Amino acid sequence: MSKRTIVAMPGDGIGKVVLPAAIKVLDKVGFEAEYVHADIGWEFWCSEGNPLPDRTIDLLAKHKIGLFGAITSKPKSEAAKELDPTLADKGYVYYSPIVGMRQKFDLDVCMRPCRSFEGNPLNFIRRGPGGTIEEPAVDVVIFRQNTEGLYGGVEWTNPPQQVRDALNTHPKFKAFASVPPEELAVSTRLFTQNACNRIVGSAFAYAKKFGYKSVTICEKPNVIRETSGMMLQTAKRIQKDYPDIELWNTNIDAQMMWLTKNPEDYGVIVAGNMFGDIVSDGFAGLVGGLGFACSANIGEEVAVFEPTHGSAPKYETLEPSIVNPMAMMLSACMMLDHIGESEKAEKIRTAIAEVIKEGKGFTYDMLKLRGGPEALEQGAASTDQVTEAIIAKL
Ligand code: NAI
Ligand code: MG
User: Fold this and answer.
1) Best residue among 311, 352, 369 to mutate for probing ligand 1, ranked by most atoms within 8 Å of CB
2) Which of 71, 73, 287, 309 best tests ligand 1's pocket when mutated (most atoms within 8 Å of CB)?
3) HSE-up of 81 (CA within 13 Å, CB side)?
4) What is the pLDDT of residues 21-36, one digit of tens each?
5) Which one of 146, 269, 281, 314 has the minimum C-beta count within 10 Å?
């Protein structure tokens, strides 16, 4: 196969640590690729007034596949303060480059697998009958709609009169009709049929490809009838093409209550933007949290793979680094799956599983230690040691 070109965007903080570690593992497994570096993050906000420079967008548009570490973002006032003085008062406004990427390339399908690895001390355990301890194997893949819904950004405080007029046409708005304009805030939850088709269709296709027995729609259609209802109706229609896969339907609130009761029963889960954010963090907590939470943002053309964690600035300059590179490596495996290199992805996942099972290379988070240089003296493995242990298995 010809060499792939991958756009490598380390970003800020520990993004610069975990992305190179993942590339080492990709090299070792024999994935032939050329990595072109692309700028993203706080540094470029400060120096250019744009955390997602056009040259990065051009590279993604050209090469289609991105591996992304993490970025730092700060509140508005700090963003203004840290902007290069020559750029001040030129109208630059900070925005999230991640949201920017999702919008620019319509990366509407977000996948977040949450799988427990045997031997991970962070795995969820619960009490079983007769005082026994159970450690259910969790293997859930959340499909979160990434571009619409409550995070779509269509919102107002003190909405313009036309918006109020439109809301007034709804009988239920009577209850709010006398609220003074400046005391009214509105955030919309817009779903489109096309996006519902894409997220539900992707979930069923994935369930079939990887042998999951169920797809669960995790919404709230009994209350949020229109948007959650559209998602559920879409799933009922699409399920007809997948007679071997069961369609389940849970409410987000009940799902979170049941999270620890029977997480092993779920396979593929679909949710809108906000509920998907919530339910994926919930499941990630059962399998080790941020050090393991990988993700993919997939559009029709472009796809970007990234760990869910941020830039962890307090570890940015810590030498040797102690952060867990597995979430980044597992994100790289999702990239391999996406481009038809699942065999290599499986090899890396197996190597990670073996290292964890042997219990020799645990980073500080897995040992529930306080992060800091002293973690290494207390028995934690460094980022490099874990990376080398995984490479040795390959
Ligand atoms: P964070 O994810 O960077 O860190 C949260 C906690 O988890 C910290 O204690 C951190 O040390 C730990 N942690 C994170 N990744 C780890 C890893 N691989 N191994 C071991 N421990 C790990 O989130 P936080 O502290 O809320 O935000 C820090 C910066 O990152 C902020 O500027 C925030 O805006 C940004 N951020 C960026 C994200 C992204 O790039 N996707 C996502 C979340 C936050
Ligand atoms: Mg989140």
Assistant:
1) 311
2) 309
3) 6
4) 999 999 999 999 999 9
5) 314
